[in-house]
User: Fold these one by one.
Assistant:
Number 1:
Amino acid sequence: MTTITKVALAGAKGNLGEVVLDQLLKAGFQVTALTRQGSSQTFPSNVSVKAVDYSSLDSLVNALRGQDAVVATIASAALGQQLLLIEAAAKAGVKHFIPSEFGCDTLHERTSTLPGYKTKVDVLEYLKKTAAETGLTWTAVFNGPFLDWGLKVGFLLNVKERTVEYPDGGNNKFSTTTLESIGKAVAGVLKNPEQTKNRGVYVQDAAVSQRQLAEAVKKVVGADGWKETITSTQEIYQQGLEEAKKANPNPGIVFVTTLKPAIWGEGWGSQFEKLDNDLFGIKQLSDEEFQAAVASYVPK
Ligand SMILES: NC(=O)c1ccc[n+]([C@@H]2O[C@H](COP(=O)([O-])OP(=O)(O)OC[C@H]3O[C@@H](n4cnc5c(N)ncnc54)[C@H](OP(=O)(O)O)[C@@H]3O)[C@@H](O)[C@H]2O)c1
């Protein structure tokens, strides 16, 4: 039976990484933070720290020797760095790899074709290939949009400016999860490597529509003065395809036109059908708990 004790976490001070780090420590793992050479991040004293050069196989192999697992919570802009990290993990004899996914289901047949997910899909394909050729195993964690972070930064809707978009009318439901639950899912994968190996795992705190989310926010901040727009995910999707075909596509446009259909459109697998919550002890929120959670995340 595989037992995982030592975990290397790449991107341990990021939006997600910091919370994953906290949950890994709470679950009793010995964590080594991989940080870029020259990065100014500081870490808790019970965390080992290794500065790495993500462009050097030797640097990564040296950092990963003796580790049981690698968790990557690397920034969206640097996802391609995981190719060498995966190669290094296999070479260093690491048992398990969790790539920097943590969003919509890029194993979904249709969603995987969205231009903005190309790097995530390429990384996952390379991880599968490496796993087939070596002893490395993998798990991809899918959680939909971050609920707390998405409200805080105005990504799901903009509370400060009171703007909300209702793609396709805003009634399709999507899975959404807080950073803390995602951290628990990562720790849960590493506690259950056999049950979770070589597949995607799916978690959610709730499945809601954009209209339900907006209603919950309005109960907290008031319903007056909102600017509401109805958009078409089909048009957004087409716009993304056109942008991606250009010689120098605008990465911001490609990203946004990928996220909107993937989260709010119908037929993109945005409400997960099968959940792994029970395996990780993640309880879904009741309507009342969801309302209370939204109230605590909305910027005041
Ligand atoms: N579902 C959602 O709503 C949602 C929202 C946001 C993000 N995500 C996903 O979650 C994952 C983590 O995203 P995040 O927002 O937490 O990441 P982030 O905060 O932007 O960055 C995480 C860390 O990546 C490390 N890093 C390594 N190479 C880098 C480079 N070349 N440039 C910049 N940073 C680099 C940095 O750590 P060091 O300085 O220590 O090296 C940084 O702190 C990504 O896969 C992202 O797509 C999902």
Number 2:
Amino acid sequence: MGDLPPREFFSPRHHPVCLLAEGLAGAEGVEGPPAVLVAGGRIQALGRAALEAPARRLPLPGLWLTPAPLDAHVHLRLGGAPEANLTSALSAGVAAVRDLGHQPGLATPRGNRQHPPWVVNSGPGLGAAGEGGCWLAQPLAGPGAMAQAAWERARAGAGVVKLFVSGLLDFDRVGGVLHHLALSPDEIAAATQAAQEAGLPVAAHANGPAAVEACLTAGVDSIEHGFFMGPELLERMARQGTAWIPTCAAVAAHALDPEGRHDQTVRDNLRRILAGQLEAVRRAEALGVNLVLGTDAGSYGLEHGAAVFREMALWLEAGVKPATVFRAATSRAARLLGLGQELGEIKPGARPWLLGVPGDPRANPLLLAEPRWRSF
Ligand SMILES: [Zn+2]
């Protein structure tokens, strides 16, 4: 990624500005009016303290200020060139993406931390050699090789280690997974321990109960996809505090099938798979699972940036509370990406990557799709 020139508003060189909004979402305990003081490329103060500081005032009548959303699961090397995909994410107002795996041997897209979207990357995933391996992962065999690869990712500057524990969904069979457990429990445990010792969280591609259970036993930080895991494992995720990124939009895109890749039977299966996953998401919310919004953008029919709002719309249709959807795309996603101090909330010290929307996005998170004002 080349360096983009700094946009004036969030540049550290910008003069202090006090944003005066109708309301603030994603801000806690603000005293006084909904005002946000930005200076030096950071949010400096909120409420009365913001209003009292010497700064140019920028009124945003009728608009609520909100942190921009994040996408916790994308593939920047799929669905177009990484540069173009980052531009799509930026134009959709996405503040950060987590890039979870690309073909080994290709350069890892890195982005630029001074400008949205911030990129947290895994580099190529860690997967099985031979049967059950994934083309987005380095093929590895044995706990020693898995641990070593996790250390290598940390040294290469990755922000997360991605494991491909199971295969993909079998679209010919509702409930079917190709390669239930492509990595052994010992391999999963070795990679997880090495990654976490190196200070990196572990994101595990896992479908079906065998893969999800092995990942939860190893103590991974997030389950990606997690189709067909069943209610007991949802309860266990809630108990352990494991994040779940259910990537519903990816299956919905396959079911829509814009290029006519599937026959009618497969499209019907996909609709049933999606309905089951949405039911599980609703149940996960009730159980208190740490649901985080991610999309699998770059996979078939799923555009970077816009995918965030397709995922939101599906959760809302499933009956997930709007406030949960909002948090899943902002504060929870930022924490999972290790950016809890930088993004996802309006608070002193955080980056001012904000959107202005005509209403409270905790009541209607889809307002984030059409901001009337943005700081970046
Ligand atoms: Zn993926």
Number 3:
Amino acid sequence: MIDLYTENTPNGYKISICLEELNLPYNVKVVDVRQGEQFKEEFLALNPNAKIPVIVDHDTGLTVFESCAILLYLADKTGKLIPSSAKARWEAIEWLFFQAASIGPMFGQRAHFALFAPEKIPYAIDRYTKESERLYSVLDGRLKEREYICDEYSIVDIAHFGWIHTVKRMGFSFEQFPNLTAWYSRLASRPAVAKGITIPAPLPM
Ligand SMILES: N[C@@H](CCC(=O)N[C@@H](CS)C(=O)NCC(=O)O)C(=O)O
């Protein structure tokens, strides 16, 4: 059985979606990151970086933090949602790192400066908005004439969906990118995705 330490956030949703897709049994342990529970000693023992998500897999005794590492762990555990040939696997890992290193941090900074920062700093808002839109266009280009980011539906789509869903709900539109918009609808219509974005709760309004 897997324990999933999570919250209703883009990185948390990646893992609930993946566990739902894989039909793996799991216990949800909510970490209220808005109230600072990630800084408690017992949570820091699981992830010294004080961020959700984290899984503890009691079948293997392993604890894994960093959402894309968890996705890779779950894909390898089950042999599903990641291609098996070396070429296709490395292509998937490449796009997984693209999500972790570019989409997540840039979208996160855009949301912070545009919506949450107490002081509105035009330079910061403009910088992260432009970079996020450039990243939309990278994804839109990749999705031209393909249904999924890799050849088949995989953890790479799940990794991106957590963030694309969240920024859409925050009001950052991407309708001007038709391939990305079609991909978003394709994923949103999957039952496991629809369920995953309600665990532990839908996004706060
Ligand atoms: N690179 C990390 C980012 C994790 C992350 O930023 N988690 C957020 C929620 S989406 C969090 O725990 N924030 C609490 C904090 O920053 O104190 C991952 O992909 O797992």
Number 4:
Amino acid sequence: MALQQQRGSPTTRSSVGSVTTLSNLLRMLYSRAGDYPRGQPHLDAESFSPNTPEGACPRCHGLGWIHEVTEASMVPEPSKTIRERAIAAWPTAWGGQNLRDILISLGIDVDTPWRNLPKEVRNWILFTDEQPQVPVYPGWSHDEIQRAIRRKVEPAYMGTFSSAKRHVTHSYATTQSAMMKKRAARFMIGRACPVCHGKRLRPEALSVRFEGLDIAEMGRLPMARFSKIFAPYAEAKAGKLKALRKTHPEKALVVERIAGDLCRRLSVLLDLGLGYLTLERSTPTLSPGELQRLRLATQVVSNLFGVVYVMDEPSAGLHPADTEALLRALDGLKAVGNSLFVVEHEMDVVRRADWIVDVGPAAGEHGGEILYSGPIEGLRSVEASETRRHLFAEGAACRAGCVHRRGGFGWKG
Ligand SMILES: [Zn+2]
């Protein structure tokens, strides 16, 4: 199993909580042991996920933000008249001319500055869902058109009106052209959803609380803080838990079990120096090192055995103080019967290997030769090895230059 540094297919919906499965546990906890408002029916765990139809906020469909069109976004220069293309959001070429001609037929003054038109007229032009069909006489004034209609003069064609909002949202949703989509997006403003306030869940789910927090607020806490909330429940010490045992013994059992599982997973994450991350943090925003350690932590608690794990510089980006925790995590994987193959430059990590493969002797085209393969002590006598000097020099740090040289080694289970 390769614990990659690279991001998989980048979906913003993949988060720290989903990769570590902590979000699943939290949903179960809220569903089965959360505090519901009086009279509210019980919700299943699915209803606490913004990625399900049961859980998603109905206004923003679980995105947490919405695209909106406003008068200011569609008419950036209100001193212009409609004829001068005040409605910037309308199509540029014939489509725009068509819509302006339709407005003339409808009797709207296209030569008055936009901002001087009555508010109802402006709102109708921008936001109406109506699509009246009107006779179009291109180039004619409103009066001429009225006369033509009375005399039953055949129009050039019948045109269908479409408000600016309708045009923008329709072309955004349906166009196959990236350019058209980009143009439509220019007239839309993104803002936090007014219903869920960016929390992505439907109001019923957000009304359920644990320790006074809704599940979205919980997901915004750094994991270190999060762990402090659950530790007393996991250790069966929380006063609340004792009270709960008397009133709702089954619920108390659920909380204790889930909190125990949460804390077991959290302790590995905290050990690996990831306690500052929140569950809602999307994984495409993590550094490669963070992502690899996140995957490593998930594996440590997976109870898999007989697996060969392949890792590229698991110490990358790790604070030296956290290296010992990384080694403990790696040892933990080994102890349950797995093998680890690690590419590494950090000598404190290299030193812990059972078997070392030194590739050298230098960087790039000067490397690529297997200088040594065997138990770590054997490298001591390999003259050509640059690694040897760093590895066996007491307290010597790896020089910057060695970043370009690759040495592979492994732990054997
Ligand atoms: Zn919403």
